[in-house]
Amino acid sequence: MAMEMRLPVARKLPSESLGRDTKKHLVVPGDTITTDTGFMRGHGTYMGEEKLIASVAGCVERVNKLICVKALKTRYNGEVGDIVVGRITERRRSAEDELAMRGFLQEGDLISAEVQAVFSDGAVSLHTRSLKYGKLGQGVLVQVSPSLVKRQKTHFHDLPCGASVILGNNGFIWIYPTPEYKEEDAGGFIADLEPVSLADREVISRLRNCVVALATQRMMLYDTSILYCYEASLPHQIKDILKPEITEEIVLETRQRLLEQEG
Amino acid sequence: MAGLELLSDQGYRVDGRRAGELRKIQARMGVFAQADGSAYIEQGNTKALAVVYGPHEIRGSRSRALPDRALVNCQYSSATFSTAERKRRPHGDRKSCELGLQLRQTFEAAILTQLHPRSQIDIYVQVLQADGGTYAACVNAATLAVLDAGIPMRDFVCACSAGFVDGTALTDLSHVEEASGSPQLALALLPASGQIALLEMDARLHEDHLEQVLEAAAQAARGVHTLLDRVVRQHVREASILLGD
């Protein structure tokens, strides 16, 4: 079996031309953002001696009177209405819980859910009270940083290339074969164990590698970027997508296409 | 060591530096993809690696959870090949436990733990090559790693060691200078406010000299801050270019 090895090479710094022209206000902890007391302080800042000081390293975002600093990489912070994908690790052992839920969701199941409420200590409460949420069947899970998932109106996408994707706000991305018919009455609790065809599997593998490639190059993940990346990767073999040179090439092409589309 | 002059008449140290000069510092953030935050630093020949996980749920007993803030857990480990003689126990020995405790005290002062109640933040530091100033290198590496993880901090924590030889305060001591037996202290500073996070010394120094040595250490720590600040800004700039919008 052939093995591939490579020697370390010096990193190429990303060229300045890739970014937009807007000058972003980058801060590090300890930096004073402003001495104007009229602003409300948001995440990533704290008040010290009449000054607003940054507490994380990132760029300053100002929405009217609210100033917050968006860190480059953070753990997921739940907000009401977010879609999350996750695995059940532990559950309550009360009597009525046993009767009602054990039949549907077990420990170890992968589910999609929506955030219902956030507690003061950061814990979130989830619900699956809609037919589009529930247990996830056959597919591939990719874990990326939550800061790379763009906030959109909907996080469930049926991509034209032949697979569907759920972009969880917590950074868990679920790629699965598009169900042929929507079972309206069963909801999300019956796992579909029909064998998946080779063509569908290849599409899903390619999508998975594209998502990993975009994540390593720190690009925002949303349906358009994933689709453009998929199309840019078609000339290459699926397993080659993760090679550093090919990853760079594909992501550069995706970036350029996205810039053209907006410009 | 008899005959080894730590400070020459012209004011040069063993490695050619001046009394208040720092060694060459190189640092990088985000060296590991799996950890929440990671960083690597080289201060002269001292090389340290720091990895941060968190904030996450408390592992083990839930009773240790603090209701109003996060628990900071630090572990210091030095590789068996880090010193001239091969070390038998990389962690768990007294010096490692003590350094781990000192790191924990330092970071509890700097991290805004009230923002993450009932969680735990793990900081692991590993020294790959020890040539003096290991505590300082660990603190500097851990600061970068905590920043990389996006955990909110009051300010950078910059540390430096300092000693006192022939009436002059020397900063950023190498192993030779540390082993000479002259008094030395380690200082961890929050540069913006000038507050001291930790000051450690276990030697005898006349109180008249303390201020001089402390001032030299603080000055050196601010020098370290300038460098770490540059590293972090460069990293943030590169990442924000890649992120685009």
UniProtKB/TrEMBL annotation, chain A:
SUPFAM superfamilies: Eukaryotic type KH-domain (KH-domain type I), Nucleic acid-binding proteins, Ribosomal L27 protein-like. Keywords: Exosome, RNA-binding, rRNA processing. InterPro entries: Exosome_cplx_N_dom, Exosome_RNA_bind1/RRP40/RRP4, KH_dom_type_1, KH_dom_type_1_sf, NA-bd_OB-fold, S1_RRP4. The keyword Protein biosynthesis does not apply. GO terms for biological process: CUT catabolic process; exonucleolytic trimming to generate mature 3'-end of 5.8S rRNA from tricistronic rRNA transcript (SSU-rRNA, 5.8S rRNA, LSU-rRNA); nuclear polyadenylation-dependent rRNA catabolic process; poly(A)-dependent snoRNA 3'-end processing; TRAMP-dependent tRNA surveillance pathway; U4 snRNA 3'-end processing. The keyword rRNA processing applies. Residues 26-63 form the Exosome complex component N-terminal domain. Residues 139-178 form the K Homology domain. GO terms for molecular function: RNA binding. It is found in: Nucleus. It comes from the Eukaryota. GO terms for cellular component: cytoplasmic exosome (RNase complex); nuclear exosome (RNase complex). Residues 90-116 form the RRP4 S1 domain. Belongs to the RRP4 family. This is Exosome component 2. It comes from Oryctolagus cuniculus (Rabbit).
From TrEMBL, chain B:
The keyword rRNA processing applies. InterPro entries: ExoRNase_PH_dom1, ExoRNase_PH_dom2, ExoRNase_PH_dom2_sf, PNPase/RNase_PH_dom_sf, Ribosomal_Su5_D2-typ_SF, RNase_PH. It is found in: Cytoplasm; Nucleus, Nucleolus; Nucleus, Nucleoplasm. One of its GO terms (cellular component) is cytoplasmic exosome (RNase complex). GO terms for molecular function: mRNA 3'-UTR AU-rich region binding. Residues 21-152, 155-219 form the Exoribonuclease phosphorolytic domain. One of its GO terms (biological process) is histone mRNA catabolic process. CDD domains: RNase_PH_RRP41. Its main location: cytoplasm. It holds the Pfam family RNase_PH. Keywords: Acetylation, Cytoplasm, Exosome, Nucleus, Phosphoprotein, RNA-binding, rRNA processing. Belongs to the RNase PH family. Component of the RNA exosome core complex (Exo-9), composed of EXOSC1, EXOSC2, EXOSC3, EXOSC4, EXOSC5, EXOSC6, EXOSC7, EXOSC8 and EXOSC9; within the complex interacts with EXOSC2, EXOSC7 and EXOSC9. The catalytically inactive RNA exosome core complex (Exo-9) associates with the catalytic subunit EXOSC10/RRP6. Exo-9 may associate with DIS3 to form the nucleolar exosome complex, or DIS3L to form the cytoplasmic exosome complex. This is Exosome complex component RRP41.
